[in-house]
Design a protein that fits this description.
single chain, alpha/beta, 24-stranded parallel beta sheet, 4-stranded antiparallel beta sheet, 2 helices, elongated, transmembrane, transmembrane helix, membrane
Length: 457
């Protein structure tokens, strides 16, 4: 009897232990599945937030379109999710009809490890994020080249400072925006229609890739009138040269068409009267220790030899027109070019022996990383070009800045729209946005309205 009792008790204990073990395994398994769901929830919420913010930043650009915003937001969310291959994801992106907000809804089906033991093999988690645009942000720098690597290119400790506006590259290249050798860019938004290569640079905020292409905001601006050739005033040079507009004496110039361009050199101090200065089939060259100043002035470049060079020791102070065809445009150009000529190669040989106080000729302009079409070259090497007020619009040109001191930092605002933009040697190009501090207007599609994002979940 006693023996039977012990046997029954042992069997009861075995059953109790088995039940307890099953319960314990269920609790541990349930806890693991719960932790997995919590982690998945956090991941998709973060992905939704990141995607909505990317879409919202693109929305701040006036020229953005709904389809591109949806595509960018979706792509950003997909890139942010780490477990989408094992757990299916559904993404829904909605853009407000007035383009003031973008909403991302993400749902993920998570495979459970222990759930099947209680008849539940999967569970769904979801997240929602909405980025609302307060105001609109417009462009202060746009590289128009649609395909070239390095359409926007910073090298050798070069810097761009544009706290209140956007830096943008339209190139669909995998390296459409490049930063190397400790280069730095600071802006409200930095965006590339293609990819970016900025691991050796410091861009703040981090540049976004796959952004919508921005149509040229100045494509409809008319060209100024190109008149008959103007002649230099008496006393502009000590040694005139036939067919050349050479200036080596201090003089005041009038607006008009300068056939073959204009070269200002030695220690000449040149003041420009208000108006439009057309460089027809030739460059604008300011070299040696020369000074060029003008308020309410604009430059327009034509022909294969149209280009610009501001040399190392020159002093440049220029402000764009406040009215007329070129209102707000400091520089513009003919929209096509076939066989452009480097401005550095167009410098005249010195008539007199170069003295130790006159800087030597600049070297050849560094070539672009790539190009989708021929481009004129506009090169600023000057270490004293602190006032460049207005918009530089070069739809067939490449702006190259290889100064070693700040450029345009004393300008109320500076905007650059060019086929390509390249900075070398450590300049700091300031794209200020103090639009209320000047009477120079900002061309439509650029400029004065900034925006910010509000994120809600």
């Amino acid at each position: 009897m006693t023996s039977a009792f012990h046997r029954d008790r042992d069997g009861t204990v075995t059953v109790v232990v088995a039940l307890a073990a099953t319960t314990l395994i269920g609790l541990v398994g349930g806890a693991m599945d719960y932790a997995r769901l919590v982690s998945a929830q956090g991941q998709i919420q973060q992905a939704a937030d990141t995607g909505a913010m990317a879409g919202g930043n693109a929305l701040k650009l006036v020229v953005s379109n709904t389809a591109s915003i949806v595509g960018l937001t979706t792509q950003t969310i997909q890139s942010a999710l780490k477990d989408s291959a094992n757990n299916s994801v559904t993404i829904q992106v909605d853009v407000a009809s007035d383009k003031t907000s973008v909403t991302a809804t993400v749902e993920q089906t998570v495979q459970l490890t222990f759930g099947p033991f209680v008849g539940m093999s999967t569970s769904k988690v979801s997240a929602k994020a909405k980025a609302s645009v307060v105001g609109k942000m417009r462009l202060c720098m746009l590289a128009l080249d649609p395909a070239a690597a390095g359409a926007f290119n910073l090298e050798k400790s070069a810097q761009v400072t544009a706290y209140d506006c956007a830096l943008y590259s339209n190139s669909k290249s995998a390296s459409g925006m490049v930063g190397r050798d400790n280069a730095m860019a600071r802006a409200q938004t930095i965006c590339s229609a293609g990819g970016t290569s900025t691991t050796r640079a410091n861009f703040t905020p981090n540049p976004q890739s796959g952004c919508p292409v921005v149509p040229d905001p100045l494509a409809d601006r008319p060209a100024p009138e190109i008149g008959s050739c103007i002649t230099l005033p008496p006393g502009a040079t000590n040694k005139p040269k036939a067919g050349k507009n050479l200036i080596d004496q201090s003089v005041t110039l009038n607006p008009g068409t300068y056939c073959g361009g204009l070269e200002i050199r030695k220690r000449a101090v040149v003041t420009l009267n208000p108006g439009v200065y057309v460089m027809k089939d030739g460059p604008l060259l300011v070299t040696n220790d020369a000074t060029l100043s003008g308020v309410d002035v604009a430059f327009y470049f034509t022909g294969d030899k149209g280009s610009l060079l501001f040399d190392k020791k020159t002093t440049i102070n220029l402000s764009a027109p406040i009215s007329g065809t070129m209102a707000g445009l400091l520089m513009s150009e003919e929209r096509t070019v076939s066989a452009p000529v480097d401005p550095a190669s167009q410098l005249e040989d010195e008539i007199e022996e170069v003295t130790s106080t006159i800087s030597p000729k600049p070297g050849k302009t560094p070539p672009p990383l790539a190009a989708s079409k021929a481009m004129r070259t506009y090169r600023i090497i000057s270490d004293n070009a602190r006032t460049i007020l207005g918009t530089i619009y070069l739809p067939a040109g490449r702006l190259v800045i290889d100064a070693s001191k700040p450029v345009a930092d004393m300008s109320a605002y500076t905007v650059v729209v060019a086929q390509q933009i390249s900075l070398y040697e450590g300049p700091n190009l300031y794209l200020n946005a103090n639009y209320n501090n000047t009477s120079v207007p900002v061309p439509k599609g650029l400029g004065p309205i900034s925006g910010r994002l509000l994120l809600s979940q």
